[in-house]
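call fold(seq) -> tokens
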Amino acid sequence: MSQDLYRCTANNLATQSVASRSPETTVTEAVDWLETNGFDVAPVINDDDAVRGYVTLERLQEAESGAQVNAIPLITESVNCSPKSPTA
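ret:
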């Protein structure tokens, strides 16, 4: 792995322009868009650029084709990611 990668910040590595779908997108439109672009998941963003959740190709393929996308909500509660202490 290149040493330059170790000097990068999350901002350097993050996608600057994220491809997304709106809540008004139909299931058929979303499936076509995901398959055309080679994606299997995409964020759902409303008109205020707020993330509503995400959709997956697998879940969309199981949905009714004329319906609007139903975003899977993001986890919003805090999660403790600190390492566990060894038990005595």
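Residues 17-74 form a domain with the CBS-domain fold (CATH 3.10.580.10).
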